[in-house]
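Troubleshooting entry. Yesterday's outputs looked truncated, so today I'm pasting the complete records for two proteins to confirm everything comes through intact. If either block looks cut off, that's the bug. Protein one:
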Amino acid sequence: MRIFRTASSIIVLSASSGDAFAPLSRSTNHKKRGIEQRPKTTSVTSTATTTSLSAYIATAENAPRNLAQLDDWATNAGIQKVEGLELYTEDGLDYQYITTADIPAGTTLMYIPAGVCLSSSAVEAELNAASNGGVAAAVDQLGRIGGQNSVADFYLFVKLLAEFEAQENSPYLPWLDSLPRLYYNSVSMTDFCYECLPPLVFSLSRLERVKFDNFREVLKKVDLVSDYVKNDIEVLKWAFNSVYTRAYADKEGQGSDVTVTPLGDMFNHGTETDIEVYFDEGGNAMVYTTADVAANSPLRISYGCPTNPSFLFARYGFLDESSPATFCKMMDIPKTPENVAMGMDFSKMLFYHDTGDISQEVMDVVLYAKVLANLKSSPETDGYKDAFYNAHIQGDEGTKAQIAEQFRYETLTEIKKHVDTFLESLVELEKKSYGKNFEEHPRLPLILRHNEFVKQTFQKVQSNLAAAGVGQMEYEYA
């Protein structure tokens, strides 16, 4: 999960209580709501060994996840959980935390010591200390090929590969063996799957694939990973997906620090969320509730904007059918400062799934960037575009509404042309899947579900426009 850290404090902890969650190597008997302090060892280093567990981590997609020793490992590592917090699965593939007891807002659910967390800054120092320059050379090359914002993730990627190669000598072995093998995201798709993706999710998926290809290329310079592992595409995808679907990112200084929190990475996404993660100054991670949670309920965190299901699909490989809206998929409008100021953003230019409503930002951007920008030049029309933009920037709602109403039909006609064309393209994409073997392309059913979700949304918009009397004829702006 790729989550932004929050700067807010945990509600249950007193701001003046510096030792509310003291390092677990100290002996302390005091309690806070949710977790009882217990003295445990917090440091996890690569010199430790793990016994009574298979020494080989199978990363094949059909390999089962091994969670048998995860709880014992977590306890020994100093990870603490509130009573009633349990892992639940329906299929043996996807695990998530639920609560078996009522939990009030502000309760600390889990504490992960800094020594267990995999922080990219700490991992960077560790890898560079162990390397003879290979890691630095790889990072330099990554920056030169456009991967500057992925450097923190690359350190974690290399770290997982090194721990994978250590096998029974890795202190993280029980956690590594518990991670998913089967993914449905962009890095795991076949080339044919890409042919069935609509433009936006195709673009987002290609960005993810390029990151993976870049990692694979610069990994050649890393001297801490064997050639055998470097050439094992299955292992590389497993490590890449583990980082990109489970890490928490610092929102200040984009990509500057990324952290994986073992066990804290097993909360599922939700449009409506119950929990957040907080990192204290020492790098310890705490998961806490932001709302009252009833017994036998899943605990949900946000993986990203709930109105951008295409991103969630490309990055994480699931379809969030609870998403209230989806981006309108207009990919032909240039991202100029003026268009952005008008509201051009994936999270704002929306079609609403249940109602087919159109967001105000869609109306504003289409009017400004398409209708007014394409007016035939004349003394009567030349000032409309600037007037609409200035009214928007200055908050002159009266002038803005007057211009919008004057060109309302033209705006809706532009939107309908886009909706009609996009729906036709979805039909053509669906036809490509006819007769395909889902065993050869196991992500294809999810792609078709994603496309169907988008199609249902667009059909409702289309129906609303037809009901409003907006026709399909081309409109020549005068």
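Protein two, checking that the full record survives here as well:
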Amino acid sequence: HARAIRIMIEEHFYWGVAVHRWAHDGGQYLENFKSLFGSIPAFIEKKIKKQVGYKIEEQARSAGIGRHSRLDLEQMCCRDLKAVSTLLGTKPYMMGDKPSLLDC
């Protein structure tokens, strides 16, 4: 079960969030942008966000997840989160009482 959950998070949910943040929202809400790239002029920041958004979208499309509409992608990510929440339930960790690689 752990492998299936990890793959859902790393290969499905991750790309959904990345596309949403970098492509759909154009990096507009990236609070940590300056920590990633340092202090740069606004016009360069805009160009970087556009280029990174394009690359993320291109990679997500190659992975298959980027071929879905924005609405479909948001709904899929919500279902992923609900599935993780359901599987976690009231357990302290995903696989039980002790942390595993999945909890990282």
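Both blocks look complete. Sanity check on protein two: The mean pLDDT is 89.
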